[in-house]
Structures are given as structure tokens and as C-alpha cells.
Design a protein that fits this description.
alpha+beta; seven-stranded mixed beta sheet; five-stranded antiparallel beta sheet; 4 helices; globular; binds biotin
Length: about 210
């Protein structure tokens, strides 16, 4: 696949830089983001020391891409001896705290796969209960990650979903979705969407933020 890495020092968001570049297989990496974005318009703290990047890919199935990216982050951490789990769809957790997040945005014919990994950056006091980091050199993580991502992207849907199941920590748990719907996370379907059992009914959840309730 031969990713081309473009390195920036301080940017608003790597997603915005990627929109201007729009070339397949380019990886935009920044030392710092001043306006890093999380899912649902949330802020994403992106100080020096962490890995903030956007991988520009041709549009195929952006939900599957985010699952593949989450698996690749978990596998990369594992290759450095760190055990991580995935909360549906793609929050990467270490002992229940978030170490990495993924934001896929469609733009023209492309998917901008934004990936943030807390490495040697500070975690702000206000999110210390929820977020964590690992002490891995950014360049080493990046190169290992891109190799693993490339392998993951070659796989077909069934194999991606099988890999996801290997790292997930969601199924069987009581969860809320966007703090509204409560149920038991029963399964993922053939497209990677969540099957939530709510009062005996099975609901298909295509997007949302899960919270573990027990
Ligand atoms: C989430 O879990 O809410 C997604 C976080 C995604 C953060 C990354 S950091 C690189 C890229 N640029 C951004 O502004 N956001 C993504």
C-alpha cells in the first residue's frame, strides 16, 4: 500500500489538513493539534508527545474501516507488550480507560481516518478518570501501526469482524447508548453494527457512545 507520511508541527486538526491534500494512502501526522476533534463534536486533547494522524483512504465502507483501524491500534499495542481492548465500535481501552480513539469522516470520494493515541503526552487532569496513556515512542508506534493496518485492510469483512471479536470487551455487558437506550450488548451483525437486547427485543445500533453500566 506504501503509505506516504507527511509530518506537520502544529495544526488545527489533521482532519482539516487531510481535506486539503486528498491523496489516497497519505498519512498526515502532527506533533500537536490546536483543535483536535473527537466523535460527536467533542474536543480531543492533542498536546505534544501523542500520535495524532489522519490516514487518507478511498471510500469503501467507513464503518468497517474504523473497526479495522481499532483492531490495528490494539494489535500494535500488543506488539509493544500492552494489553488493550476495544469498546464498540472503536474506543481502545487499557484497564477500562481510553488510550486511543478513531474518527472516520467522509469527504468527497475519500474516508479520512483520524486516529489519536495517547502516548508520551500529558493527560489533562479533568479526564484522568477516563483516559490513559502508554510510554511508547511515537515514531516506533506509527511505523508498526501502519504495517499492521495495511494487513488488516487487505482482509475481507468476515476476517475483520473475527479479529474485532478477539479484542472486544463489549459483548455480554449491560450498556447505555448515548445515555438514552439501555440494554445488553448481544452481538455484532455482518456489517459490524451492534445488536442490543432491549426488554427482549433486538435493536440494531449503527452509531453511538456506549457506557458500561456494570
Ligand atoms: C474519539 O474517540 O472521539 C475520536 C478521536 C479522534 C482523534 C483523532 S487525533 C487525529 C485526528 N484529528 C482530529 O482532530 N481527530 C482525530
Amino acid at each position: 500500500m506504501n503509505f506516504e507520511i507527511l509530518h506537520f508541527s502544529s495544526v488545527s486538526s489533521t482532519q482539516e489538513i487531510a481535506k486539503m491534500i486528498l491523496r489516497e494512502n497519505v498519512v498526515v501526522v502532527a506533533d500537536e493539534q490546536r483543535e483536535g476533534r473527537g466523535r460527536k463534536g467533542r474536543r480531543w486533547f492533542s498536546p505534544y508527545g501523542g500520535l495524532w494522524m489522519t490516514v487518507i483512504l478511498k471510500d469503501f465502507n467507513s464503518h468497517l474501516l474504523t473497526l479495522a483501524a481499532g483492531i490495528a491500534v490494539a494489535k500494535t499495542l500488543e506488539s509493544f507488550g500492552v494489553k488493550a481492548k476495544i469498546k464498540w465500535p472503536n474506543d481502545i481501552l487499557i484497564e477500562g480507560k481510553k488510550v486511543a480513539g478513531i474518527l472516520a469522516e467522509k469527504h468527497k470520494d475519500f474516508v479520512l481516518l483520524g486516529i489519536g493515541v495517547n502516548l508520551e503526552n500529558e493527560i489533562p487532569e479533568e479526564i484522568k478518570d477516563l483516559a490513559t496513556n502508554v510510554s511508547i515512542k511515537r515514531e516506533e508506534f506509527l511505523l508498526a501501526f501502519l504495517e499492521i493496518l495495511e494487513e488488516e485492510l487487505k482482509k475481507d469483512k468476515e476476517d475483520i469482524l473475527e479479529d474485532w471479536r478477539e479484542y472486544e470487551c463489549t459483548l455480554g455487558k449491560k450498556v447505555s447508548v448515548d445515555d438514552e437506550l439501555v440494554g445488553i450488548a448481544r452481538d455484532i451483525d455482518d456489517d459490524g453494527f451492534l445488536i442490543l437486547e432491549v426488554n427482549g427485543r433486538r435493536e440494531r445500533i449503527t452509531a453511538g457512545t456506549l457506557r458500561f453500566l456494570e
